[in-house]
Amino acid sequence: MTLHVPFLDVRSSFLEIRSELNDAYKKVMHSGQYIHGEEVESFEEKFAAYCGVKYCVGVGNGLEALILILEAFGIGSGDEVIVPANTYIATWLAVSNIGAKVIPVEPEFSTYNIDPERIEDIISPATRAILPVHLYGQPVDMDAILTIAKVHDLVVIEDAAQAHGAVYKEMKAGSIGDAAGWSFYPSKNLGAFGDGGAVTTNDERLAKKVRVLRNYGSEGKYVNEIKGINSRLDPLQAAFLKVKISYLDEWNRRRSVLAEKYRASFLDLRELVLPCVLDWVSPCWHLFVVRTQKRDQLQNYLNKLLHQTFHLYHDQKILSLFFLDLIPTSTILNPCFCASWFLQLGVYNHDKQYRS
Ligand SMILES: Cc1ncc(COP(=O)(O)O)c(C=O)c1O
Which terminus of the chain is more exposed, N or C, with fewer CB under 10 A? Predict the structure, then answer.
């Protein structure tokens, strides 16, 4: 059987639940509340409950969620932040944007997530935080990271932009570290119909600080006390997300059905490395990523079957422009090594054929 999977058709999630989304749209438009307000607050409560944390603060996007967390922890110029070498560029830019130094760590070659065993060697007196990314929706080995952080008195900030609904040892991704940054970019497992982001945490002080920082440094209106920015979650997007969050577990389940189908279909292909799923995690399959030295041949073959695929982040020019000193030492960034071996297959699934 041929499985036709468009890589991404974000409109299809709208089509599946359009009447509820249209109602949400009308409610916001008639409310006259287009900044902050009830829709944002009730989404924040809902998302905090979903993640199993006390606080959620809606912000403009995932990059700013990370920037605001770093700032709220007082991290900045002269500090170092440990990040995965293998991630989307936003993780690194959050750190460099606040003036801190990016310290990349190579991935484990089973999960492609940051390798905890390589972290301790590069901790210096300037290290303030570890910023693990649950890449492709695969939870990071958080126990290992938390142990290191405790020994060295470091803050742990989860980049959960790709991990809505992923579970690590019965805890939701984004509820395990000191705080987490989320993106609701439309293609995410929980995606808005525009930009959006959030910070989750159990730390009341941090939540309060992020709330002030996202609103020009002001807790109420025109009470500007610290130097903040404008990074607010739009009420319309909050209303849409509130509808979509009820479907998140079901849509993630569909993703895992597709992931299983891929696994079964590719099992005999010896030259293809399939995603590894450790016993104690439940990924949310933001992406299904395979690795092969014959990547381009595989991509051509799949594309002929109308199965769209994409290369991964490692071709990002900005890395070679701004982080040049780091590239020769990195197997993941160096194009001569693994960068050209990765291919992502579609797991987006709102067509009728995926609904059960
Ligand atoms: C791992 C990771 N971190 C951060 C971000 C930034 O999110 P946003 O695009 O909402 O700023 C993304 C977005 O794709 C991401 O994949």
Answer: N
Instruction: For ligand 1, say whether the CB of 162 is within 6 Å of any of its atoms.
Output: yes
CA dihedral 181, 310, 248, 139 (to 10 degrees): -50
State if residue 131 touches ligand 1 by the CB under 6 angstroms criterion. Answer: no
Burial class (CB in 10 A: 0-12, 13-18, 19+), 93: middle
HSE-up (13 A, CA, CB side) for residue 192: 27
Q: Helix, strand, or coil here: 273?
A: strand
Q: Please tell me the distance from the alpha carbon of residue 227 to that of residue 238, in angstroms, as a whole number.
A: 25
Closest atom of ligand 1 to 133 CA is 1
Name the band, by pLDDT with cuts 50, 70 and 90, for residue 87: confident
Ligand 1 touching residue 191 (CB < 6 A)? no
State the closest ligand 1 atom to the C-alpha of 94, by its place in the atom list counted from 1.
4
- Mean pLDDT (whole number) for 32-61: 98
Is any atom of ligand 1 closer than 6 Å to the C-beta of 231?
A: no
Per residue in 148-163, pLDDT tens? 999 999 999 999 999 9
pLDDT at 79 over 70: yes
